[in-house]
Amino acid sequence: MLLIQSEDTKRGEGGDDCPGNIPGRFWSRPDLTYGGFTNEPKSGEQLLELVESLQRDGLTLEEKHYYTAGYDSPFKLTNRLNEVWLFKKPDVCSNCA
User: Fold this and answer.
1) What is the signed CA dihedral for 10, 11, 17, 22, rounded to 10 degrees?
2) Which of 4, 16, 59, 83 has the highest CB neighbour count under 10 A?
3) How many Cβ atoms are within 10 Å of 91's Cβ, its own excluded?
4) With bands split at pLDDT 50, 70 and 90, how would you rate the model's confidence at 23?
5) Half-sphere exposure of 51 (CA within 13 A, CB side)
6) Is the Cβ–Cβ distance between 28 and 54 less than 8 Å?
7) Are 21 and 12 in contact (CB under 8 A)?
């Protein structure tokens, strides 16, 4: 599963290295991918698992939207790879506020 940092970051006076100025970062959690043919209930379960895991890590998430990704042809019957993606709320440092 992937976590994508939103590109709607708040620009401030913190400089280019300010966390609020870093667009489009990706974090991968390969331990949270899932196999088989996916459907809405299955992706919903994976979404909840991802949200719980990331919240335990102290990340704030955009919870209104999520994406699912399936990488295999419908003709592939085994060893399928699926993911659920979420957006991370942008970090805003004290210099950017």
Assistant:
1) 50
2) 83
3) 17
4) low
5) 13
6) no
7) yes
* Reported pTM: 0.66
Torsion region of 95: left, alpha or beta (phi above 0 gives left; psi -120 to 50 gives alpha)? alpha
DSSP helix/strand/coil, 56: helix
Cα distances from 25 to residues 8, 34, 97, in angstroms, run 12, 22, 20
Per-residue CA distances from 52 to 24, 37, 46, 73 (Å)? 22, 23, 10, 30
* pLDDT tens-digit readout, 31-61: 778 899 999 999 999 888 888 888 888 888 8
Name residues whose C-beta falls within 8 Å of residue 28's C-beta, 6 or more positions apart in sequence: 1, 2
